[in-house]
Amino acid sequence: MITAHTSARSRIPLLDADPDLGLGLSGERKAAAASLIVDIDRHWPGPWRRSYDPDEANGGIGLLLVEGVMIRRLSVADTVSAELVGSGDVVRPSRSIAGEFLLPVHARWSVLSAARVAVLDAQVAADLATWPEIVGALLDRLAERAERIAITQAIGQLTGVDRRLLALFRHLAERWGRVQTNGVLIPLALTHRLLGQLVGAQRPTVTAALTMLAERHALVRTRDGSWLLPVASECATLSRPRAGWASRHAS
User: Fold this and answer.
1) What pLDDT, in 10s, does the model give residues 188-244?
2) How many CA atoms lie within 13 A of 210 on its CB side?
3) Most CB contacts within 10 A, which of 43, 49, 98, 192?
């Protein structure tokens, strides 16, 4: 098993790591915000192994994902769901949600593609008191992440796993898609098992649904593991449940 590890830490201005956080700042204030320095760590694909607990420190905010993709998996009883987290998201991977008496939940984090994270520790949180515009931008990021979770939850309620998968990839394309002449490429190496955890289905059902989507040329997996929404798939509808296969394979 590949285990995620962390390279040497570097220090750079926060707005160099994520320039969009400074969009609400005037020219002078943006220049002055160069004094906001954060630690940057790199994590490689595999289970996330924390080397620090910034979000457990008194007053710390957590981690700002600057580059890469991480996966949060939540286990409830014998069921696992997943969330994809990407650049711009604020996360607190080391915060445990286990130990609830009525509904035990276990969280696991892993790195899907090489990631760089900015450590928003207690010192950074204190420094941000001078920059409410940046704090507001970080709160917007949290709200956007909550909205994406709600959309993914709604996708999981669609009838038919093929419709769920097509809706999921359209949702992912909004954020990660790259427009090409033959469609929209989603450069995420998502396994069938992970896709099942994202849409609420078992891996064999996902495999069958992907086969059908490929036969319809609605979704194609490329040689490097990425996914392509062909131009023709834009004409496909999500609003009309199909009798037969969809009802037999709904999960």
Assistant:
1) 999 999 999 999 999 999 999 999 999 999 999 999 999 999 986 544 444 443 333
2) 21
3) 43
152 — phi, psi (to 5°)?
-60, -40
Any idea where the domains of the chain sit in the sequence? 10-154, 159-249
Alpha helix stretches (DSSP H) within 177-232: 192-199, 203-215
90 against 93, higher pLDDT: 90
CB atoms within 10 A of CB 176: 19
State the Cα–Cα distance between residues 27 and 96, nearest whole angstrom.
Answer: 40
Q: Which two tokens stand for residue 119?
A: 């450590």
Please check whether residue 152 is in contact with residue 198, taking contact to mean a CB–CB distance below 8 angstroms: yes
The class of domain 159-249 in CATH terms is mainly alpha
Q: Give φ, ψ of 60 to 5 degrees.
A: -75, 150
Cβ(73)–Cβ(139) below 8 Å: no
| CATH annotation of 10-154 | 2.60.120.10
Average pLDDT over residues 103-112: 88
* pTM (two decimals): 0.84
Give the C-alpha distances (Å, rounded to integers) separating 170 from 75, 76, 122, 186, 223. Answer: 26, 27, 38, 9, 20
Give yes or no for a contact between 128 and 85, defined as CB atoms under 8 angstroms apart. Answer: no
DSSP secondary structure, 135-168, as one string: HHHHHHHHHHHHHHHHHHHHHTTSSSHHHHHHHH
pLDDT at 5: 52
Tokens of 66: 């600057």
- DSSP one-letter code for 242: P
